[in-house]
Amino acid sequence: MKSKYKIGFLGMGTVAQGVWRHLEENHSEMSRRLGADYELSLACVRSIAKKRGVDIPAEKLTENPDDVVLNPEIDIVCELMGGVDEAFKLVKKAIELGKIVITANKAMLCEKGAEIFGLLAKNPKSQIFFEASVAGGIPIIKSLREGLVANNFSLIYGILNGTCNYILTRMERENASYDAVLADARRLGYVEADESLDIDGIDSAHKAAVLAYLAYGRWVKLSEMIVTGIRDIRLEDMIWAREFNYRIKLLASIKSDTAAKKISVAVYPALLSLSDVVANVNEVFNAVALEGDLVGRTVHIGRGAGQNATASAVISDIADAFKALNSNSQYVPHSVQNGVEMMPLKDIESSFYIRLAVKDATGTLAKIASIFASCNVSIELLEQKKHENADEAWLILTTHKTSEFAIQQACSALESSEQVLEKPFVLRIFENSPS
Predict the structure, then answer these.
(1) Taking the C-alpha atoms of 339, 345, 351 and 356 in order, what is their torsion angle to the nearest 10 degrees?
(2) 385-434 confidence digits (pLDDT tens)
(3) Are 364 and 216 in the same domain?
(4) Which residues form the ACT domain (predicted)?
(5) Per the residue annotation, which of 99, 106, 112, 207 is the catalytic one?
(6) Among this protein's residues, is 207 annotated catalytic?
(7) 272 & 359 share domain
(8) Is 14 in the same domain as 123?
(9) Is the separation of the CB atoms in 278 and 157 below 8 Å?
(10) Same domain membership, residue 161 and residue 99
(11) Considering only CA atoms, which of 389, 186, 361, 159 is closest in space to residue 270?
């Protein structure tokens, strides 16, 4: 065991500054808690001249990432720069040199996770920790890796994007439009520079891929998931949900058919019963529910982002890094299942809510009904609502349980119909059970 471990940083943005500040200002206490002394050795930044919210000596700053990664004295590399290709190139170097890597980069993990863990298998002295990549201040990675290690999971679901949760909360609470609340979210800095990452469900999908790997040992590509965002949600949908004791949330859902060794991974806005704890998690908070075969259901709630919450997760990984350096142990996902495949769409079932803008004319309802029948989709409830245009109407309907494949067929046929004036809007009615 070394008397002092040296930590280097790739990137010194908001989260990294929070980590540096807390470890620097509380050095004595944190050394005691972490079980070893440490030195914040070097940070790679885009511009040394840039003013930051934390005071870092000039001699501890560099603009060359290799100064951090290739430095033989640095034991732990904290990759907090973001992006995929450049970050992966640097992480690869660090692993090949036997260093411990800590990252909050869910996009890199989602796209390069299989390669990263392949590299780790060839470099047993190295290790990667990534608590901060999912749900910020909620220790969900550690829960899966350690606290719930005895369990196999039939269902994992929850809210993994605080921006979308904030928007949906305010839309419902204030009867405000999506566009109005999104504008406020931009002003408050809640939305990524590339807002499609949040709004279109991509950020949540990256995080879902990490959870799927931890639970099932398979890296799921975005192309293998159902991924839908919140752009098309209207107040009419919020009002209907409220009337029937639902709430609309952007959910990440991972379901497992253990017997068939198949999983489904999806991100979509869903109608969630108000009796579900997750439905009552609002604002920028995240929530993750896990259904284990031994523990049953556990629900984890907390801040999903922000400097301090995410810095807390990074420091948790530093504590694990110290343990790994002392023991030379390497993490292997506890639920690796050889040959795990993705469920085909015909095997993924749900009930659905569908909103249609249609011609307000004789024969429209009959045509709509015939399309659903031809696709073997059974309608459970049908309501007609007044449209802002005199010759149009809103149709709100729900279905009995049917497959993703059947609903996609039905929506494609509806979109081609002369009676339907806009692309059908679809919400899943989420059942918090794996079946």
Answers:
(1) 150
(2) 888 899 999 999 999 999 999 999 999 999 999 999 999 999 999 998 75
(3) no
(4) 353-428
(5) 207
(6) yes
(7) no
(8) yes
(9) yes
(10) no
(11) 159
